[in-house]
Design a protein that fits this description.
Blueprint (H helix, E strand, L loop, with lengths): L9 H13 L5 E5 L6 H13 L12 H7 L6 E4 L8 H12 L9 E5 L7 H12 L5 E7 L7 H5 L2 E4 L5 H10 L4 H7 L6 H8 L4 H17 L1 H13 L7 H19 L12 H7 L5 H19 L4 H14 L1
Helix pairs in contact: 1-2, 4-5, 10-11, 10-12, 11-15, 12-14, 14-15
Length: 326
C-alpha cells in the first residue's frame, strides 16, 4: 500500500511525504493515535517508500526494492509485535543484534517497526532508548502507540511525532463502500467499532447480516407484537448460534431505537437502518422521543444483565416485557 492510498490522515501523510521529498528523514518516528486509524498500514507504506529506489515522496511500487518489499523479501525491514501483553527486553536485544549485521550495501537504510510501543516493559524501553541515542546509521525507527503517555518520555522526546486522528463514521463508511462491502452492513458496523479494522472485522463476522435481520424483526415486533417478539427470541436465538452474539444484537437494537429519534429530528442521513426508512417513517412519530430514549436505556440495561451472567434469552425476554410496558 502506498502512503497516498491510506484513507484520511492528511496531517500524518503530509509530515511523512515532506520528509521523503526533502530528504530530511528523522531517525525515529512515533505514530500516535487510537487503534484502527491506519498506523501500521502507514508505517509499512512509509517503510516501503524509504527503500524505494525512485526517491520520490511515495513508493513507486515498480522498482526492485518495492517488489522485494511487497513480496516480503526485504531483509532490512524488521518488525516487532508484543510477546504476549508487552514488548519485552529480549525482543529489543534481538533487534539490536539484527540491526548490527552489515548488509551487502553499506549505504543501505535499515528500518524497524515496533507495534504497540506503549506496551514496552521499562527494561525494554530503557534498552531501546540507548539504541535511539546511538543509532546504527542509517537507521529509521517507527514506533506505533495508542497511549503516548505510556511511552517513556525520553523515547517520545527523541522521536518525530506523527498524529493519527480517529476516523469519523462518515469517513469509515465511505472507505468500506469503496472496498465493496455491503452498504447496509457497513452503515451499522461503523457505529459498532472504533476504527476501520474493527468495522471490517464486524462486517466479515459470520452471521452479522442475520443478526441485523433479527434486530429489525425484534425492533418492529417490540412496538406492538409482544408475543411474536418472544417467539422470535425462542426460535431465532435460543435454537441457533445467534444467542452467543447477544451483545452485538443489543448494540444494534440501540441503534434501531436511535434511528427513530434521528427520523423525528429530520436527520434521515444519520440513520443506520436506512433500508427500513419506509417502516420507520410510518412509526417513528407514534411515540414521543422520551419513549425511544427509554427503549435505548432498557436495551443497555439488558446488555448489562448479560455481562453480569444473566442468561441471554432471559435478559432478552425481560427486555421485551419492559419495552411493551413502555
Amino acid at each position: 500500500m502506498k502512503l497516498a492510498a491510506i484513507p484520511g490522515q492528511e496531517k500524518a501523510k503530509q509530515i511523512l511525504q515532506h520528509a521523503l521529498r526533502s530528504g530530511r528523514v528523522s531517525h525515529a518516528y512515533l505514530f500516535a493515535g487510537p487503534s484502527g486509524t491506519g498506523k501500521l498500514q502507514a508505517a509499512l507504506a512509509f517503510a516501503q517508500a524509504l527503500f524505494c529506489l525512485c526517491g520520490g515522496d511515495d513508493a513507486c511500487g515498480e522498482c526492485l526494492e518495492c517488489r522485494k518489499f511487497e513480496h516480503g523479501n526485504q531483509p532490512d525491514l524488521h518488525r516487532i509485535a508484543p510477546d504476549g501483553q508487552s514488548v519485552k527486553l529480549g525482543q529489543i536485544q534481538e533487534l539490536q543484534r539484527e540491526m548490527s549485521y552489515r548488509t551487502s550495501d553499506s549505504s543501505s537504510r535499515k528500518v524497524y517497526v515496533i507495534e504497540k510501543a506503549d506496551s514496552m516493559t521499562l527494561q525494554a524501553g530503557n534498552s531501546l532508548l540507548k539504541f535511539l541515542e546511538e543509532p546504527v546509521s542509517p537507521t529509521v525507527a517507527i514506533l506505533l502507540a495508542t497511549h503516548t503517555g505510556a511511552v517513556l518520555p525520553t523515547i517520545a522526546s527523541r522521536s518525530q511525532p506523527v498524529p493519527f486522528l480517529p476516523y469519523s463514521a462518515e469517513q469509515m463508511l465511505e472507505q468500506l463502500i469503496a472496498e465493496e462491502h455491503p452498504p447496509v452492513l457497513a452503515r451499522a458496523a461503523v457505529h459498532l467499532a472504533s476504527g476501520l479494522d474493527g468495522s471490517r472485522a464486524i462486517i466479515e463476522q459470520i452471521g452479522f447480516a442475520e443478526i441485523r435481520n433479527v434486530v429489525i424483526q425484534l425492533g418492529k415486533e417490540s412496538l406492538s407484537r409482544f408475543t411474536a417478539a418472544l417467539v422470535t427470541i425462542q426460535q431465532r436465538l435460543s435454537k441457533t448460534d445467534l444467542g452467543a452474539d447477544s451483545q452485538l444484537l443489543l448494540s444494534l437494537l440501540v441503534l434501531w431505537f436511535r434511528d427513530m429519534i434521528h427520523y423525528q429530528a429530520g436527520r434521515s442521513d444519520k440513520m443506520v437502518f436506512i433500508d427500513q426508512l419506509e417502516w420507520i417513517s410510518a412509526h417513528a412519530f407514534t411515540k414521543p422521543v422520551s419513549y425511544w430514549v427509554s427503549c435505548m436505556e432498557l436495551t443497555l440495561q439488558a446488555a448489562g444483565m448479560i455481562k453480569a451472567n444473566v442468561a441471554p434469552q432471559l435478559a432478552l425476554e425481560q427486555l421485551m416485557v419492559r419495552l411493551q410496558e413502555g
